[in-house]
Amino acid sequence: QVQLVESGGGLVQAGGSLRLSCAASGRTFSSYVMAWFRQAPGKEREFVARISWSDGSTYYAGSAKGRFTISRDNAKNTVYLQMNSLKPEDTAVYYCAAALTNTPGWDYWGQGTQVIVSS
Known about the structure:
The chain has 119 residues and is an all-beta fold.
């Protein structure tokens, strides 16, 4: 059974940092793309960043570029999202997702971790 388990959320002041983790289990993810999404209250879920498990290539949403860094640890089967210079508008539930490379849609989702940035 595939599981994506997020952790690392919490309450932080504006300008602070958090590192989110997504522990993946239940299958081999070498042919997958891993991503972070977020959903703020009253808003639709939005893409934040993604990383190719095989070659480590990354892509960021404009709101994350320059402040967030996505990375992976193959040995630990874990994907990270380092978030710096956090703003109140980054407040959201952050979700980890996995998709088979070059296929539409996201196959697996985690349960989410809450991030609250106070001003």
